[in-house]
Specification:
about 200 residues; alpha/beta; 6-stranded mixed beta sheet; about 25% helix; about 40% strand
Length: about 200
């Protein structure tokens, strides 16, 4: 899935319902993913819908970093129910990767698993996440192409400390740990894997 890039920046627009005066953030993101063997750079423009928190926006940015690829694109955001937060499609239009951020309805996850080769849910909001997982784990763990990861409140809060209208971030990923560094600060987040796809 991973590949080494040329090192050049590629502009990616992260959309989130831009019709209602979205706040614009920009990020230069360098990724060194030891687990996937991906080393690349991305120039990102993040559009944050008024109903989206900065914390959720940064979780989207984290999701991009964790699965970074120049074929990875962002859906149209909170106002669009039939698209994920991020997706990757091949040249024929087949959805190779579908990523949802937050706590999607179990029926929507099952539908996504029927449309995409691999589906990832990156859940956050610790107390609500635990209740969501407890109520949906039995159904979700039957889905062989689903990966579910959760973030602690501490991780989400740490991500939010990195927010700026203009960000320059270096991301290193190794053995499931994610380090993000700016010119002035650095954090570590460790998504907890609750369920992983069945090996082919």
């Amino acid at each position: 899935m991973g590949r080494s890039g040329s090192g050049g920046f590629k502009s990616v627009l992260i959309q989130s319902g831009m019709a209602l005066r979205a706040a614009i953030y920009r990020a230069e993101l360098s990724v060194a993913d030891m687990d996937r063997g991906v080393f690349d750079q991305y120039a990102l423009t993040l559009a944050r819908h008024p109903s989206e928190t900065e914390g959720r926006m940064m979780v989207r940015l984290l999701a991009f970093a964790m699965y970074s690829d120049h074929a990875l694109a962002f859906g149209r955001g909170l106002s669009t129910e039939d698209e994920p937060d991020l997706w990757k499609r091949d040249d024929t239009g087949v959805i190779e990767l579908w990523i949802d951020v937050g706590l999607p309805d179990e029926r929507d996850v099952r539908k996504a698993c029927g449309r995409a080769r691999t589906v990832v849910v990156l859940a956050y909001g610790e107390r609500r996440t635990e209740a969501w997982w407890e109520g949906n784990a039995a159904a979700l763990t039957r889905l062989g192409n689903l990966r579910v990861c959760t973030l602690s409140d501490q991780d989400t809060a740490a991500l939010q400390t990195m927010v700026a209208r203009s960000m320059k971030l270096a991301c290193t990923i190794q053995e499931g740990h994610v380090w993000l560094a700016s010119d002035t600060d650095s954090i570590e987040v460790t998504p907890v894997v609750r369920h992983t796809p069945v090996a082919a």
